[in-house]
Specification:
By secondary structure, the chain is α/β, with parallel strands linked by helices. Helix content is 38%, strand content 21%. α10 crosses α16 and α12 packs antiparallel against α13. The longest helix has 19 residues. The radius of gyration is 32 Å and the shape is flat. Bound molecules: adenosine-5'-diphosphate and magnesium ion. Adenosine-5'-diphosphate binds next to β22, β23 and β28.
């Protein structure tokens, strides 16, 4: 067990701020603890002699052997809370649950108080939950250190929630549905302990089979990804992440910044972390139940057995919407079904054993399909009839599930007739639903988790790069006191081994002429100015300039820049080798730094339609080779890269390597806030970064 084990399994708990005043939080906590805690409760409150029959101490220090108190629950008013925490720390208490509110959630005074609280916790190295927490629960010890009105029943789900109110709602809901818990924590403001700490703790806890979370944000995305990747090798994590907003995206100066906002960072980060993300509470618990009750499937093929045509079709449709597929039966299976089922039955998947089927017929059909090598899981869909006992059916399904050791979900479509059958199924860990789509989605979640468990996370490749050179380029921009860099910083890409066309930035028509002659052919000329974000929009890009027109073009470009903005800073003109666009595809490769997850890489279809088509995919960097390769597969236009319409396929390996190299660059330099390579031209002979734009944060250099 990890270092938080005594938080959930204490012998002695002190309530600092214990009271018996009617309707107070301090009373609720004390009485909840007294109700079921299998250990000692100590009351602390200088204004009371006795609280709910407990002797009340003036201070933690007055308690005998205060260092043997495992958890202090702090419910004092906010102005004395930090002092109470210090006293607990000084007395040798390691775990503190701060119920008191009035911290970071309440404005600047509260924020200052939260900083003090954090400092106190760090000074005494406290495991601190909250502040502004509903508390913690753990069923094996009957620990209810919350001010909620319901204690959880025992089970194998551990649950963390950023909303305390949501904990009480879930407990109320769960009480009706046989959903049991091991530990529950209301995270509050997460001043010290956050979701990553609890994921790590429960990953080590043999009594937790499934970890559930309701989160509004993630404190440290990188830590969370690392921890969750390890934990999900054994223990599934299912999360509801609320607050799907895209704050910040509007201020972006790059295409990547505009398209890769915080919601996409969460989506990618949580996926890369190996968590299952759900949209609703119902899904949260549907997934939790099947993950804790059923084995993982060895494939994605599902068999449907039903006594009703319509619901059978609904189930088939749900399979179509999922990542599961309808199993195609072996001949032997079809022969056996043909012999044992009535003539009117449909022996192909979905197997319809028709309306007069008793439980026995379900038994034969289910056993037959489960023995088929092409079947990895099954769903049993039944409507009530006069000849079918749901109770018998539940027994049959339970028996067959245990024999086959394959995951099964049931859809007993009914109300009061389901009762007994439901109990038998839930006893056996087989989830039952009215709606076939829920059964299919839950089985799909099992498949999903099976895939996560089979993942092998590779370390990102470390390429041999010129990090010093890259630093110099970024620092020289800082010296010019600019945060916006363009093609004048192309060498940044060279330093990290990302191919760029020949060329350079010049500051006079005659230098332009010389460089064009060196390149030797028609060239591309672009205005270079930190004030001009989209060069071609203002006529700042001339493609295919013949040598004799280079001087005039230089002048033209500068005039256009001045027309666009009188006082625009013009750094010069870039003269660049022509890249063969006809045999290539313009892609975009970029990065936007997310406050929680850090560098978010974006790859997609590039060029001028990038924000119109929005065909792109994102990953939290650093990415490994397989992750970079998966980004190519992700986009809808992938066939375009692979040689659609008789074109030669582009050099995929070069693209993948470039994604990895950019990943290394933005990981090495937190000063890069956002970056676009658009276009990154991919051809059969490799890739060329034709344009570059980035924003830096000088303070990070
Ligand atoms: P911006 O995005 O600021 O308008 P770019 O450098 O991306 O400027 O140029 C705009 C477009 O011009 C590119 O999308 C590409 O189609 C074309 N282009 C730019 N540089 C080259 C080049 N070296 N070879 C061929 N085409 C180019
Ligand atoms: Mg561009």
């Amino acid at each position: 067990m990890g270092r938080l084990s005594t938080l959930f399994a204490p012998e002695r708990v002190a309530v600092i701020g214990a009271t018996d005043s009617e309707g107070s939080v301090g009373r609720a906590i004390t009485s909840n603890l007294l109700e079921s805690f299998d250990g000692e409760v100590v009351a602390v409150n200088p204004y009371k002699e006795v609280v709910l029959g407990l002797r009340c101490y003036d201070a933690v220090d007055d308690v005998d052997a205060p260092e043997t108190i495992d958890v202090a629950v702090v419910v004092v008013p906010p102005n004395v809370a930090v002092e109470a925490i210090r006293e607990a720390g000084a007395a040798g208490i390691e775990n503190v649950v701060v119920i008191t509110a009035g911290f970071g959630e309440t404005g600047s005074e509260g924020a200052a108080r939260e900083r003090d609280l954090r400092a106190a916790a760090e000074e005494y190295d406290l495991n601190l939950v909250g502040p502004n927490s509903l508390g913690v629960m753990s069923t094996p010890k009957g620990l209810n250190a919350t001010f909620g009105n319901e204690m959880a029943t025992e089970g194998d789900i551990s649950f963390m929630s950023q909303s305390g109110a949501f904990v009480t709602a879930v407990l109320d809901w769960a009480a009706e549905r046989d959903v049991g818990f091991k530990d529950i924590v209301s995270l509050g403001n997460k001043a010290i302990l956050d979701e990553g700490d609890f994921v790590a703790e429960w990953g080590d806890d043999p009594e937790t089979d499934v970890i559930l979370g309701y989160l509004e944000d993630i404190e440290d995305g990188e830590k969370f990804i690392q921890t969750a990747r390890e934990v999900t090798q054994d223990t599934p994590i299912v999360l509801v992440k609320s607050g799907r907003t895209d704050a910040g995206a509007s201020a972006a100066a790059s295409h990547t910044g505009a398209m890769a906002g915080s919601e996409r960072a969460y989506e990618a980060g949580l996926e890369q972390a190996g968590t299952l993300r759900v949209e609703s509470v119902q899904e949260l618990f549907d997934f939790a139940q099947i993950l804790s009750g059923q084995p993982l499937p060895d494939g994605e093929e599902i068999a449907i057995v039903t006594n009703a045509g319509g619901p059978g079709v609904m189930t088939t449709d749900a399979v179509g919407d999922s990542d599961l597929s309808l199993a195609e039966f072996e001949d032997e299976t079809l022969d056996r079904l043909g012999e044992t089922m009535p003539d009117e039955a449909n022996i192909y998947n979905p197997v319809d054993i028709i309306g007069d089927a008793p439980a026995k017929r379900f038994e034969i059909a289910l056993e037959t399909v489960l023995e088929d090598d092409n079947v990895s899981m099954a769903v049993v869909v039944a409507c009530p009839t006069a000849v079918l006992s749901f109770e018998e059916l539940a027994e049959v399904v339970t028996e067959k599930q245990q024999e086959a050791e394959m995951p099964i979900a049931t859809t007993l479509m009914g109300g009061k007739s389901v009762g007994e059958g439901q109990d038998i199924l839930s006893e056996a860990g087989i989830p039952n639903y009215f709606d076939p789509a829920r059964a299919v989605d839950s089985l799909d979640a099992l498949r999903d988790y099976g895939e996560i468990q089979a993942r092998e996370y590779e370390a990102p490749t470390a390429f041999d790069v010129d990090r010093e050179r890259a630093r110099e380029i970024l620092e020289s921009a800082a010296r010019r006191n600019t945060n916006r860099l363009g093609v004048e910083a192309m060498e940044l890409l060279d330093a990290y081994g990302i191919p760029t066309p020949r060329g350079g930035v010049v500051s006079s028509p005659s230098e332009a002429q010389d460089l064009a002659e060196e390149i030797g052919d028609e060239v591309v000329m672009k205005i270079v100015s930190p004030d001009i974000l989209h060069k071609s929009d203002i006529g700042g890009v001339e493609v295919g300039v013949p040598p004799e027109e280079v001087r005039d073009t230089y002048e033209d470009l500068v005039v256009r820049a001045r027309n666009y903005q009188q006082d625009a800073t013009v750094l010069g003109v870039q003269v660049q080798e022509m890249v063969d666009l006809d045999s290539g595809t313009e892609t975009i490769l970029g990065m936007n730094r997310d406050p929680q997850f850090g560098p978010l890489l974006l790859f997609g279809l590039g060029g001028i339609f990038v924000e119109v088509l929005e065909d792109n995919t994102v990953r939290v960097a650093p990415v490994s080779e397989p992750e970079a390769r998966a980004m190519l597969d992700d986009i809808d236009s992938a066939p375009l890269l692979r040689g659609a319409r008789g074109r030669d396929p582009v050099d995929e390996d070069a693209l993948v390597e470039t994604v990895q190299r950019l990943s290394q660059l933005v990981t090495d330099f937190p000063a890069i806030v956002e970056l676009d390579i658009n276009p990154l031209v991919a051809t059969p002979d490799g890739v060329q970064a034709v344009d570059l734009r980035l924003t830096i944060d000088q303070e990070e250099l």
